[in-house]
Amino acid sequence: MTTRVGIASVGGCENGHDCPKPTPVPTGCFDIDSAVQDPDKYLSVVCDGRVYVLTVREAPPSAPQPVGDWQFVGGPTNVVDATLSTRANEVYVSVLTATGTVFQGVCTATEPLTVPCTFTQMPTPP
Q1: Are 100 and 124 in contact (CB under 8 A)?
Q2: Global pTM value
Q3: 90-102 burial code (b ≥16 CB/10 A, e <16)
Q4: Share of the chain above pLDDT 90, in %
Q5: Alpha carbon separation from 51 to 18, 39, 71 (Å, rounded)
Q6: Choosing a second label site near 106 at 20 to 30 A (CA), which of 1, 74, 99, 122?
Q7: In whole angstroms, what separates CA 83 from the centre of its chain?
Q8: Distance of alpha carbon 39 from alpha carbon 46, whole angstroms
């Protein structure tokens, strides 16, 4: 029997398959990503199902300088993977949850990042 983790829907599962249990959220910090919006760099980590972002001022020739501390950006608290991207003074935080749901958060790119970010649920992935 084939099952797809995180595809359970209300009232049953797709294609007549048995409903799998949601993937457990790992504990500790287990995912990292970064994005640059000159002159700053944003680092994200997923820790205990939550996404945190650190703003870093990249100021050559000196060493990178953190601006503030790690900030919880809001959104879901069962995240298993997250990515960052930037555009037009915004930082985008895309997340995948343990239940297979995808959200995109939009944050204002400031020093430090303006939180909480505004999260919107995306369509269910295939």
Answers
A1: yes
A2: 0.80
A3: ebbbbbbbbbbbb
A4: 61
A5: 31, 22, 8
A6: 99
A7: 6
A8: 24
**How far is CA 27 from each of CA 31, 78, 90, rounded to the nearest angstrom?**
11, 10, 29
**pLDDT tens column, 34-84:** 999 888 999 999 999 999 999 999 877 778 899 999 999 999 999 999 999
**Contact of 95 with 79, CB cutoff 8 Å:** yes
* More confident call, 10 vs 50: 50
Confidence class for position 20, pLDDT limits 50, 70, 90? low
Q: How many CB atoms lie within 10 A of CB 70?
A: 17
Residue 107 has pLDDT above 60, yes or no: yes
Measured in residues, the chain has a length of 126
Amino acid symbol at 112: P
Q: What is the pLDDT of residue 25?
A: 85
Both tokens assigned to 79: 């995240």
